[in-house]
Amino acid sequence: MPDPFQDVSAAGDEMIGQIIDALEDRADDPAMTEIIERYFADLDWPDGGTLLEIGCGTGPVARAAARYRPRTRVIGTDPAEELIADARSRGRDIPNLRFDVCDGAQQPVNAASVDKVILHTVLSHVTHPQAILAEAFRVLRSGGQVVVCDADFSRLSLALCPDDPMEACAIGFSRNFVTDPWLAGRLRPLLTEAGFETEIFRSETRLDLEGHGGPVWTKFATGRLVTDGIIGQPLADALVAECQRRIDAGTLYGFNPFVTVIARRP
Predict the structure, then answer these.
(1) Which of 62, 136, 151, 191 pairs with 165 at a CA distance of 20 to 30 A?
(2) Left if phi > 0, otherwise alpha if psi is -120 to 50, otherwise beta: which for 55?
(3) Residue 52: CA atoms inside 13 Å, Cβ hemisphere, count?
(4) Would the pTM count as exceeding 0.90?
(5) How far apart are CA 90 and CA 71, in angstroms?
(6) Domain tally for the chain?
(7) 122 lies in a domain?
(8) 45 closest CA partner among 67, 30, 28
(9) In terms of residue numbers, what domain contains 137?
């Protein structure tokens, strides 16, 4: 089965609800907040201007950007109507923020009209990242910057030992809920091919010690295994319970490397 993040609207009501919860839970993760704040601080924000987030989901990064720079017009877009409806509800009191439904490769803005583009955990969930990067290049003004922040899902781990059954949940999440787990390693050449000049390329570490990632990875992975008839619901429930036990005992260790790239359109 394909990565449901490719087409959220086709995932069904139950999965859509889980995706919304997962996106907002990640937004509350202090480790994720620090990653976002670091790349905000690295951007040369103009006085005013426009920032576009492509693939905004429920809008936590767009909301943060609009609050970070109240004079900047922030637009968040996503192809999933359900996610945009949720984003509009959560961002309704932020005057410099709007959300639109559109395909990632067809943004509702003119060429060379945007100062910043953010692609936050988007490209690892699409089959053709080149098309998204080409669209980011099209909409950016000369000198504008793009931020690509994505997880290196190929190295996602929940293991505490070699035979830890929780590692199967990390592997299962990467295999079934990520289109390209190896995307992070290819970001620099992809940006170069799209015409960008890379200014910052750094690794980030998102450690989950308190339950801001592990429960999502475990629930999603075990749910898929049950749906595929590989395991029964009792084992899935036991793995979810083990994740919670580790949270309560202070032994959860979720390792989720990220990469942040900031590049400029010449």
Answers:
(1) 151
(2) left
(3) 31
(4) yes
(5) 19
(6) 1
(7) yes
(8) 67
(9) 4-152+179-207+257-264
